[in-house]
Design goal:
This protein is of the alpha/beta class. Helices cover about 25% and strands about 35% of the residues. A 7-stranded mixed β-sheet has the order 3-2-1-4-5-11-10, with helices on both faces. Strands 6-7-8-9 form a 4-stranded antiparallel β-sheet, with no helix packed on it. The protein is globular, with a radius of gyration of 17 Å.
Length: about 220
Amino acid sequence: MEQGAFTADGCSVEVYRLLPPGDEPGIVHAAVPAGASILELGSGAGRVTHALLELGHPVVAVDDSPEMLANVRAEKVCSKIEDLRLGRVFDVVLLGSHLVNTASEADRAAFLATARAHVAPGGRVLVEWHPPEWFDSVRDGQGGRLGEVDVRLGQVVRDGDLLSAVVRYSAGTRWWSQAFTCRRLDPQSLKAALTSAGLTFERWHAEDRTWFSASPE
């Protein structure tokens, strides 16, 4: 079966074209001023980007995959997050997709530093993460349906603060898989990472604590 293009970190472009925007745009919109400019780090194929545009936000989408960005209908920049230097600031910098839970401490520091460098004074960085309790709840077979795509976790392995698994996506007769590893951050580790980047935790923006904001110091 032809599975289409994949990004360097194993994401299927076709899957991200099929996935619906979900709750994320509404959470972001409710957390920021009307019409706030947004820099979206790791935009993928524009799943969230396009919904934010419809909600009245000018968005600059950043991704390191030209194949992903080919689907984005907004101003876009092809760059790794850690290498981004636009010389511009935005009302809001969006770091979604649980990127802050990357297994690499160096990558986490670089992602947050990029966010800090591009947020305007008085602006905010919005971050999506896996809270500590999520790591305790993950199990093989966990998942559900997102639009026309069924999403299931398998091969879950825990090693200290690290959790590895494989996500299987299926839509009709098509399927894709993606392996990932993420790191549990306790509140102290999260605060330390934010402080090192010149950011201060602000507040939660979802009842399940999966989204929070940070302000520039």
